[in-house]
Design a protein that fits this description.
Penicillin-binding protein 2a (Domain 2); alpha+beta; Alpha-Beta Plaits; five-stranded antiparallel beta sheet; Beta-lactamase; 3 domains; seven-stranded mixed beta sheet
Length: 611
């Protein structure tokens, strides 16, 4: 007979073991359900709930008339899919049907097929479908040709007007564009993102397996607010004419780029501003993939050595300090030795013109005379350098102008108080070498020279919604009488020199300005030691045009970047379209634009300067 297998001790052990395990489970359960309840509930909620931001209606951008729409938003649809809900055979069938339906080829067809045949729960197949295409998709869904797809509303930013050149939209550099996330990039779109974009609509909702919001569970956190419309200072007709002029000069001069800005010198309003080559704001994604550098606006975002257009600032400093008058005689010797003979500067033709008045030296753009006068600005090189530098900074160089577009740079101007200048630095600075500025800085500084001496802040937005923008003014920088003298000197440039007179003056209008031609330094040449580019130059002209003698109405700044001269001799660099000829074309387009300017300007100083 077998003995009994049960044991009180064994039963007691098992009872204790089960009790311990049960207590542990209860403790753990209490930990999850009590201590960790809020955290776990939040994680569960996050896994099944989505927070969704939808951009509000973006404000439109108009030209100065408030009638021409330069940028607007249209309602399009995007095509999405839930490939994971279909088997592989059906995925391929739907992909093939969509390729045919959307009329895709090559890379686009391959990309859609790749996305449709993935195992993803949600994927975007196409964006920006117009109504006709979207309706074809709906019809195919109704017939059962395709399945597992959905159409979703998608606002798309469009720029409705063609630009002045091929594959461009009007004022592309100035406007910028809006990316797929509804964020402005470059230009006005980026600078005024908060104004144009408004406040997005924010909702919470439970989501389904494909990460889509379940309609009955939607809770609005913030209803959002639409963006405000913006009215620019730009005249659409003048903008188009400007872009066409730049295209023609770019092609004729075989230039890398051509830029110009038309500025009201009294208000700071930018009436037109452009660069060619430009780009198509409606096709920004394609541009980003092939030539993203096109997005940069050289008028505000690229610096260069301006050359002899800077001689007018040397003249301003010298006339203000009493070093010279317009009629003071200065000897032009062709080559000027500096720094004890270790350095020198030359006139462009390396030939001296002898004794000549200061105004003639500026008109004939004599480097040696500009350098001599700059050296006389102080008792020492440091004092003279400081005086010239102070004149530059008063005119706004070495600081942003404050123009209301994204990406403005401040330029490069070395302060002699920080890093001492040699005589060669002072001489080079007197005619625009060794300093780097932007075209918008030049336009603003020349505006101060010709408007009676007041520095204005360039701006491109005239009104936000119904609120007119008051133009800002940093204040007066020179005396009105000096301004009148500088206006007269600039007129002397284009009337005294036949080379300019024949291709700059416009019958019936008052014109003045200054040219600049500068070599281009390339630090990559000579094995990284750097050298001047061969037979490529930057050509500039900044000038004014007015309906009345002595009263400029507009300032026009022109830059031909890396133009290729067809005649290249010492002292003569000719292109098919010179900078001052391009100025004349642009100035004529602007001054004759109906309704652009007020009836008459009021002079801020004497109409005729003391000579």
């Amino acid at each position: 007979m077998l003995g009994r297998t049960d044991s009180r001790r064994r039963l007691l052990f098992l009872l204790v073991t089960f009790a311990v395990i049960g207590a542990a489970l209860l403790t753990r359960l209490a930990y999850w359900q009590v201590t960790q309840r809020d955290r776990l509930a939040a994680e569960a909620f996050a896994q099944t709930t989505m927070r969704q931001e939808s951009p509000s209606r973006r404000g439109d951008i108009f030209d100065r008339s408030g009638v021409v729409v330069l940028a607007t938003t249209v309602d399009r649809e995007r095509l999405a899919a839930t490939p994971s809900e279909l088997n592989s055979r059906r995925q391929r069938e739907v992909a093939a049907a969509l390729v045919a339906l959307l009329r895709l080829e090559d890379a686009e067809a391959r990309l859609l097929t790749e996305r449709m045949t993935s195992d993803k729960r949600y994927v975007v197949l196409a964006r920006g479908l117009d109504t006709t295409t979207a309706d074809r998709v709906r019809a195919a869904v109704a017939k059962g040709t395709i399945e597992g797809v959905l159409l979703e509303d998608e606002p798309v930013r469009v720029y409705p007007h063609e630009g002045g050149g091929p594959e461009s939209t009007l004022a592309a550099h100035l406007l910028g564009f809006v990316n797929r996330d509804g964020i402005g990039q470059y230009g006005v779109e980026e600078y005024y993102q908060d104004v144009l974009g408004g406040r997005p609509r924010v909702v919470h909702a439970q989501r389904d397996i494909a990460a889509r919001a379940i309609p009955d569970t939607v809770v609005v956190e913030d209803p959002g607010a639409p963006g405000e419309d913006i009215r620019l200072t730009i005249d659409a007709g003048l903008q188009l004419a400007l872009e066409q002029e730049l295209l023609a000069a770019w092609a004729a001069d075989r230039a890398q780029s051509v830029s110009a800005v038309i500025l009201d010198p009294f208000t700071g309003e930018v009436l037109a501003q452009a660069t060619y080559p430009s780009y198509d704001g409606n096709a920004y994604a394609a541009v980003a993939a092939t030539a993203p550098g096109r997005f940069v606006d050289p008028v505000v975002s690229s610096v260069y050595e301006p050359g002899s257009v800077f001689k007018m600032f040397t003249a301003s400093a010298a006339l203000e300090s009493g070093v010279v008058t317009p009629k003071t005689k200065v000897k032009d010797v062709g080559t000027l030795k500096l720094d004890g003979g270790r350095t020198h500067v030359d006139d462009a033709d390396r030939r001296g013109m002898g004794w000549m008045t200061f105004e003639d030296a500026i008109a004939w753009s004599r480097n040696v005379v500009a350098a001599k006068v700059a050296i006389e600005l102080g008792d020492t090189t440091k004092a003279a350098s400081t005086a010239l530098h102070d004149t530059w900074t008063r005119y706004g160089f070495a600081a942003p102008t404050g123009i209301d577009v994204a990406g403005e740079v401040r330029g490069i101007v070395h302060d002699p108080r920080i890093t001492g200048w040699q005589q060669i630095d002072l001489a080079n600075g007197s005619f625009g070498q060794g300093v780097a500025v932007t075209p918008i800085q030049l336009a603003a500084a020349y505006a101060a020279m010709v408007n009676g001496g007041t520095l204005v802040q360039p701006h491109v937005v005239k009104a936000v919604g119904s609120h007119e923008i008051e133009p800002a003014s940093p204040g007066r920088v020179i005396d009105p009488k000096l301004s009148a003298t500088l206006v007269t000197m600039m007129n002397h440039v284009v009337t005294d020199v036949p080379f300019y007179r024949d291709r700059t003056l416009i019958d019936g209008y008052y014109v003045g300005g200054k040219t600049g031609t500068a070599q281009i330094w390339d630090p990559t040449l000579r094995g990284g030691r750097g050298d001047w580019k061969h037979n490529l130059f930057n050509y500039s002209f900044v000038g004014y045009i007015g309906r009345d003698t002595g009263i400029p109405d507009l300032v026009v700044a022109v830059k031909i970047n890396e133009g290729t001269p067809t005649i290249a001799r010492v002292g003569q660099l000719e292109m098919p379209v010179m900078s001052f000829e391009l100025f004349r074309r642009i100035a004529h387009d602007a001054i004759t634009r109906p309704g652009l300017l007020p009836e008459r300007r009021v002079p801020a100083g004497p109409v005729v300067a003391d000579r």
